[in-house]
Amino acid sequence: MGRKVLLQRCCPTMANDSLSSLPLSRLKGVGPAAAAKLAKLGLHNLEDLLFHLPFRYEDRTRISPIGSLRPETGVVIEGQVMAADVIFGRRRSLLCKVADGTGMVTLRFYHFTAAQKNNLERGRTIRVYGEPRPGSAGLEFYHPEYQLDYADSGLPPLEKALTPVYPTTDGVSQKTLRNLTGQALHYLQAHPPQELIPAQLLDQSGLPSLTQALSKLHNPNPDDPVSLLLEGKHPAVKRLVMEEMVAHQLGMLQKRAGQKAFHAPRLSGQTLFEKLQASLPFALTGAQQRVIGELMGDMARPHPMLRLVQGDVGSGKTLVAAAAALAAMESGYQVALMAPTELLAEQHRDNFRHWLAPLGIEVHWLAGSLGVKARRETNAALADGSARIVVGTHALFQEAVQFHRLGLTIIDEQHRFGVQQRLALREKGRFDTANGSQVPHQLTLTATPIPRTLAMSVYGDLDTSVIDEMPPGRKPIDTLVLPEGRRPQVIERINDACRPDSGRKNTQAYWVCTLIEESEELQAQAAEATFEELQIALPDLCIELVHGRMKAKEKAERMARFSRGDAQLLIATTVIEVGVDVPNATLMVMENAERLGLAQLHQLRGRVGRGGEQSYCLLLYKNPLSLTGKRRLAVMRDTTDGFIIAEEDLKLRGPGEWLGTRQTGDLAFRIADLVRDEALMEPAKDVANKLMHDCPQWVEPLLRRWLKGGGISQISE
C-alpha cells in the first residue's frame, strides 16, 4: 500500500470534536456558580467531564443480610428501625438499631437534628449504605447514607449499575458529578467522539471503542470485575491509557522537532582530548569511549545536540563531559558547565582545572559566593572570549553574564533544574544568522539513574546515553542493615578501622545524619549531637562536622581537611550526597536510613568505594520499621545497580515524588500510570512515530484532547 493511499484512509476530513466544543453550561443544572466550582477540578466541557474517571466504585445494586456483614466493606442493608435513642457520653450521639431477621446493627450519628431522630420511628423500613466498623455496640455504621420508606411510594428501586465515586472539591458533590456525567453519557451515545488513532496504526483487537470504554468506566455492571477497572488492567482502561500515552509521545516528538529546527555550530577536534588521555593514569572504559563517540557524532551536525548522559556514581561522566568540552574549545567556541549546588560545581571546577591546566586552558568560576571584583573580571572574560570555559551555578544565566561565542552547555544533575532554567542558559548562546537562529549544543548529566519508563516519558525529547560500565578495580560496596541497638558495635568498628595506629592504611569514614538539629518530631539524631557524642566515644580520631547551614568557605575548608586525610571521620548531613571524591573513605554509616529515599541512599553510598579497597555501608534504622521501609532497605542491601534501585524507587514513590524539585508538568497524566502501564510505553512510542509520519492531521486533535491545547508541544525550546 502506497503512502498516499494510507493517508487517504487514515486522514479523512475531520469534523469538529463536538465533546470538547460543548461547555458544561449546556448541561442541566450548570449555571455560572456551578461552572466556576467545576472549573476548579479542570472540568470545562463535556470531554473534560467524561475523562474525569472514578477512583473507586460502590455496589448499591444488592442488599446484604445484616448477619453476614464484614467490617469496612461498603454494603447496602435494609431492615426495620428497632429503636432510636440519644446517648450522653463523652460525645452526645444518636444511636439507631436496625434489624432484618438475620441480625442487628447500630447506626451512630454525632451530628443530628431532632427531626432526624423523630423520623427514625420504630418499625419503619430503612435502607442504609456505608462501611460497618467495630464499635462499642458491635458493628456500627458511622454517619451512613440512608433512605426511609414513604407511605405513598416506599423505597426507591436499587441501582442497576455500580455507583462511581469521583475526585471532587468543595462545593461539588458526588451526586452532582454523577448527574452531570449521566447527561454527558446520554449525549455520548448519540455523538460518539472521533477515534483519533486509526486501526491501521493501533491494534485494537480486544479493546473497546472510545465510547464503549468511557461508558464502561462511568457505568460498570455489577458483575464487571471492579478490581481490574481500579487496577488499570481492564480493556476499557487500557484503551484510554494507550491513547493518552500516544498523545504524550507526540508532544515529545513535537518538542524535539522544534528544538532540532534551530541551528548549532559544527564542533569537532580530538587533539586536545588525546593529549588529556595521554596524561591520565588510567584507560577509559569501553562505555566511556562509546558515549564520547555518540557526543562527537551529535556535535558534528548543524543542529543542536540534546543528549542526556546517565551513569552511576563513579562511572566517569565528568571525563566524558571533558571530551565534549575540549572538542568545543578546539573549534573556537566557549563552554559553560552548570551544577545545582556550589559544592558540586566546585568539584567539577577542581576536576577540570586538574585536567586542563597542563593543556594551558584556564577554568573560570562563577557562583553566588564570588566577590564583586572577581565576578566582574569573569564576566568581562566571558564577554570578550578570553574565557574558554566557565564552571558555575545558577549565577551563569544571570542577566549580567554575556558570552562571546558559546558553543556547548553542560548541565549536571539536570533533573534539579526546571525547563525555564535550562532555557535561560541556552539563550545566552543564541544569535541570529543568515540561516536562522543558532543555539549551543546541550549536554546534560545525571548520576541518578533514570527508570526506563520515566526516561521515555519525561526525557523523550532527549537522546540518551548510558555509561553502564564501572572503572576496573572497583569492588561492589558491601551493605549491612542494622537496628539502632547495634550502634555501640558500629562505633567500635569505626574506631578499629580508622584509628591511626590500627595498622590500616589511612582508612576514613563518613557518618551521615538526616538533620542538623535535634527534632523530637522526627526522632532523628542530629549531626551536632552526633558530633559531640562521637568526639567523646572516639578520642583517638580527628573528627570533622559539615552541614548545610555552614558558610560555604568553612564547609569547603572542613571538606578539604577530610579529603587530604587530616581527619579520619566526617560527620555530615545529606549535604555530602554530591561532594568531593575521597578514595580512602571505605566506610559509611547512615543513621535513620529508613527516612531516606532509595535514590538518595544510593547517591550517599556512592561516596565510598571510590578506590580499590573493599568498602562498607552500614544502614542504621529505628524500629518499628514500616513495610515500605523494610522493602527500601532490603533493595539497598541486595544490589548496588543504580538502575535496579531507580526502578524500585519509582515503584515505591511514584513519578511525581521521584522527580523531586524538577518541574513535573510533563508528567500530567490523567489516566495512565507510568509504573502500572510500563508495558504500553514502547508500543505507544511506535504508534506516535507512525502517526506523526503517516497521519499528521491527527496529531493536533490528540494533543488537544489529552494535553489541553498542546501541553508539552507548547514548551518552546
What does this structure look like?
The structure is a single chain. The protein is of the alpha/beta class and 717 residues long. It has 4 domains: 3-57 and 163-233, no CATH class; 62-148, Nucleic acid-binding proteins (OB fold (Dihydrolipoamide Acetyltransferase, E2P), Beta Barrel); 271-467, Rossmann fold (3-Layer(aba) Sandwich); 478-639, P-loop containing nucleotide triphosphate hydrolases (Rossmann fold, 3-Layer(aba) Sandwich). It is 38% helix and 17% strand. The chain has 24 helices and 24 strands. The protein has a 7-stranded mixed β-sheet. A 7-stranded parallel β-sheet has the order 12-13-11-14-17-10-18, sandwiched between helices. A 6-stranded parallel β-sheet has the order 19-24-23-20-22-21, with helices on both faces. A hairpin with a 2-residue loop joins strand 15 (431-433) and strand 16 (436-438). Helix 7 packs across helix 9 (235-260) and helix 9 packs across helix 23. The protein is globular. The relative contact order is 0.10. Residues 1-17, 520-524, 660-666 and 709-717 have low confidence and may be disordered.
